[in-house]
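Quarterly update from the structural biology core.
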Amino acid sequence: MHKLAHSALTYIRKHDLLRPGDRLGVAVSAGADSVAFLCLMLELRNDLGVVLSVVHLNHKLRGAESDADEQFVRDLSQRNGLDIFVESHNVKTHSTLKKLSLEAAARAVRYEFFERLLKGPDLEKIATAHTLDDQAETVLFKLLRGAGTRGLAGIYPKRAISHQLSAISKDQRDLHRQDRAIIRPLLGSRRSQLREYLAEIGQTWREDASNEDLRHTRNRLRHEVLPRLQSELNPAVCDVLAETAEISRAEEDYWTEEISRLLPELWRADESGGTLKLSSKSLPLALRRRLLRAAAESLGIALEFHHVEGILGDGDFVLPGHWRVTQRNAVVAFGQISQPVSEYQYELPVPGKVIVAEAGIIFETSFLNQSVDSSHDCALVHPRFAQHKWVIRNWRSGERFWPMHTKEPKKIKELLQDRHIVGDCKKLWPVIAAGDDVIWVKDLGVGQDFQSKGKDGILVRVLESD
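Predicted structure, tokenized:
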């Protein structure tokens, strides 16, 4: 047995990822990592006692190249006598319709495909070729976006999939429900090891040129940031980040059990919301934060860090979805607002930061020189507008705005309708104004007449969940 196969086998057994008899689909894109992974699983299938097949999604992003990838995977499957499950999906169209980046759209489509397969009769597990390097990139990416310990847990070795199987007994349904999962057996292996393995066994693969495109954040982390951290700060930075994920997952598992035990004693839900008794200020801050998040999640509310801190500080917060949250004397009350706030306005300092409770977000402005920080590909407000008084408010009837890369200004009402933003969310949609001019609109960016034409400018950031 090859040493890399032995390493993967050890990881699979340590995390109980596969059991004898499992019908396993290996996700193969045609790239080096997934091709190497399939070869490793071919070597391990007898030791594991699993039935192998191949899963491939054609993203239709690179025309003939994407079709050639699909054919490569089909040929590889046929040579090894494996069944293959293939679908094609136009990710670019999905990206446009759902207003997602290509990366996010590709991931969403891919996992929808995996989950449909797992809810069907043919597969119980799907394995992806995520490596230790992918784990390190994910942890660093989430750290830079401001993730807490939940985000720092990174990629989990196993992601369970819930589904319905009505044609079998309840006991069998429970067993199947537990078994269906997406697994990542290579999280303990390095990408370089997979390349070396392919060279040793003489197996080819196909390169995806988009993996070198530095416009994508993950590619910049992979090809620029991490190599620099390795060369200048710590050669083992990937291992350190992966270890951080391992530690964070254990912490999250502990806290999940602890909060599940404590929450029923402190949380009382009712028709309009609920109350959370934090009993006394002697409760550790970490526990109060997690109890608050868990109570909110039970109502379908996702709290950001600034929400939590504001509420625990005896704050009064209005959240998206028409929720008002207050804390008085260690009792947090969640209630729905029948009539949402219709207008709001806050002065926005430049540079500076302001919480907009009605929109449940924070706005931050800062001066930026893109010749120094070239990783920013965002538009900037021209520096001359720094001398004006800025306000953040919801848009007003009749106001017009000229988004970048469009031919002419349009009414903000129409621009929001074009993006299917409706109802109270539309009424509360934030803009930045300087005097009578709307210079920035959330999700539309800086207006044509207010953009910086050089490398210096004012950067506007919205601190909120995606």
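The CA atoms of residues 149 and 248 lie 6 Å apart.
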